[in-house]
């Protein structure tokens, strides 16, 4: 092992950061290293972090400190260089870290000769860079090996999960939705998975490799990182032990090991493996506590003697080692803040970069021997532009009524000054292949997530059709001022409403969307509209809103309703305020897909009702096509809502925009 020297930035402090826990089925019986006791290191780290806090509290110092730590991270530019010089796509720090791990531990990809296909499962994987680098690595060094992968992450489309808590990049996910698992509630939160669901994931076989790169946002309370992430870690380890095949490998991210509960949990898991290392890649910032447990040679059998005392001692010594490295790096960052020269930084970064290129075999991965296994193009979706850069920190700054009002005022001012394209009447016609999903069986629709059925959510806190900062601010400021267009009560799932029964489906219809109070109402409404269009009774449908609240298209369910109406009508236009949308020029009966009626009936079938409520029932590509128009409708709604309000809070005077 390489000890990190105090108070200086050296290349040796960024490489060879490794600690062996188990080797060839035995605990590494070593005497504790003659280093500073763990308690003393913990106190020292706390003091260093307090110094950082004092620096960042000064005016403009937070920005300069972040720039400094980015500069002293020697591989901060590695993802960009891999893209530009080594023909790698979709790179990130996670990509670089996993590349280092794969090269350092070649046994990870060794499978039994009788196996024709390596199977991997990736927990907490979004945006998908572990998958990307594993693909490149296999195409370079194992070009004749077949590979099958599945993955999980928090669902970036789930309306019940705040954008603060997840990565919203969804290009890898939407390319192969059938490979991604979001759980019975469709959120992707693995802490909610039960054993029955986990068992269903191995119906087609266990996995040779499992990775878990989960983390939580803890920058507002870094001292609680270990305790806050422990429930997530428990879930990752429990799932991995059920997914792994005998002889398989497991890689998972951990932080500090100060808590005895953390050490006991990890000890119970790693005792199932022959070889276990704790490794901090060069690509991982030296000033954080992140490191990876590399576990190889899995045995499903319960270990006869887990050697709890020895394993606890090893994990304590391991923590002292890595905390010492972290402490030294933070001390070096503090000592060089505002003093280190560009030449010194350049020499330091160049030295580490040379070592990275050598150890990560970058010259080889630039020229893979076969085409990628990931045979789909990564396309950015239009809703990605709604989130903006550094959206997590932006959203977390909106934390009370005062900050919400300030955001709303600034947002409206900027929005009104921005020139937006005026969208009038829109003509829409779907190609036959775009409507093929209407013919698919329910199982296939659920598998590729055209239909998403899951328990209802308590409140919409995330949407693909409205800026995330705006939604968060509106929720904090006045959650009763706006609603989802197709809002409904979770308890209101019975038969059709009296209002729906009173409608006459003929001629030019004006339908009060506020009166459709359940998903059953909306599905019955769509079936009745389809029947009226087929019989050429309906010429136009106008959706109006009679309540004082302002409706938005927030949910994928509401967007799906709009999409289905577009299948039946050739033209639509969005209005805003009380008259929301008008659908005209109904398609000829022969142009209505023959399977549409049975599809709409399936939406209220018992098989789906048992799963909860509908969250979506059209393909993502249809939502993508309609996105600019739905955004335009929502823009009219938020401009109307905000322009007519007097913003007040308990801490501010009345301020009218």
Automatic annotation (TrEMBL):
<dbReference type="GO" id="GO:0005634">
    <property type="term" value="C:nucleus"/>
</dbReference>
<keyword id="KW-0808">Transferase</keyword>
<keyword id="KW-0949">S-adenosyl-L-methionine</keyword>
<dbReference type="GO" id="GO:0120550">
    <property type="term" value="F:methyltransferase cap2 activity"/>
</dbReference>
<feature type="binding site">
    <location>
        <position position="128"/>
    </location>
    <ligand>
        <name>S-adenosyl-L-methionine</name>
    </ligand>
</feature>
<feature type="binding site">
    <location>
        <position position="147"/>
    </location>
    <ligand>
        <name>S-adenosyl-L-methionine</name>
    </ligand>
</feature>
<protein>
    <recommendedName>
        <fullName>Cap-specific mRNA (nucleoside-2'-O-)-methyltransferase 2</fullName>
        <ecNumber>2.1.1.296</ecNumber>
    </recommendedName>
</protein>
<dbReference type="InterPro" id="IPR029063">
    <property type="entry name" value="SAM-dependent_MTases_sf"/>
</dbReference>
<dbReference type="GO" id="GO:0005737">
    <property type="term" value="C:cytoplasm"/>
</dbReference>
<feature type="active site" description="Proton acceptor">
    <location>
        <position position="253"/>
    </location>
</feature>
<feature type="binding site">
    <location>
        <position position="213"/>
    </location>
    <ligand>
        <name>S-adenosyl-L-methionine</name>
    </ligand>
</feature>
<dbReference type="Pfam" id="PF01728">
    <property type="entry name" value="FtsJ"/>
</dbReference>
<dbReference type="InterPro" id="IPR025807">
    <property type="entry name" value="Adrift-typ_MeTrfase"/>
</dbReference>
<dbReference type="GO" id="GO:0006370">
    <property type="term" value="P:7-methylguanosine mRNA capping"/>
</dbReference>
<feature type="domain" description="Adrift-type SAM-dependent 2'-O-MTase">
    <location>
        <begin position="89"/>
        <end position="300"/>
    </location>
</feature>
<keyword id="KW-0489">Methyltransferase</keyword>
<dbReference type="GO" id="GO:0004483">
    <property type="term" value="F:methyltransferase cap1 activity"/>
</dbReference>
<dbReference type="InterPro" id="IPR050851">
    <property type="entry name" value="mRNA_Cap_2O-Ribose_MeTrfase"/>
</dbReference>
<dbReference type="GO" id="GO:0032259">
    <property type="term" value="P:methylation"/>
</dbReference>
<dbReference type="InterPro" id="IPR002877">
    <property type="entry name" value="RNA_MeTrfase_FtsJ_dom"/>
</dbReference>
